[in-house]
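WARN  no MSA supplied for this record, continuing single-sequence
INFO  ligand: zinc ion
INFO  echoing inputs
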Amino acid sequence: MKVKIKRWHTVGIWQWNMEDSTDVCGICHNPFDACCSYCKMPGDQCPLLWGKCTHCFHLHCISKWLETKDSEGTCPMDRQPFEAAT
Ligand SMILES: [Zn+2]
Ligand SMILES: [Zn+2]
Ligand SMILES: [Zn+2]
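INFO  complex generated
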């Protein structure tokens, strides 16, 4: 009984964090401490890229997005022209 309640509680906190957090990639919705859906291992192989609009994505996710015709070079979150912040 106690174990069951504890597990439910943990899942609840996890979901709340996910919804409330901006620390997930707006494209693949994976957290930034995990890698994008194209990669298997987080780390230097899968860097993050910040835009001037302050949105952040996995480099692989934003470059795939910008390659698509629909993107028209915009940020998928706010549809502003996407420029990498340096
Ligand atoms: Zn991503
Ligand atoms: Zn990646
Ligand atoms: Zn943006």
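Helices lie at 2-20, 59-67.
INFO  checksum written, moving to next record
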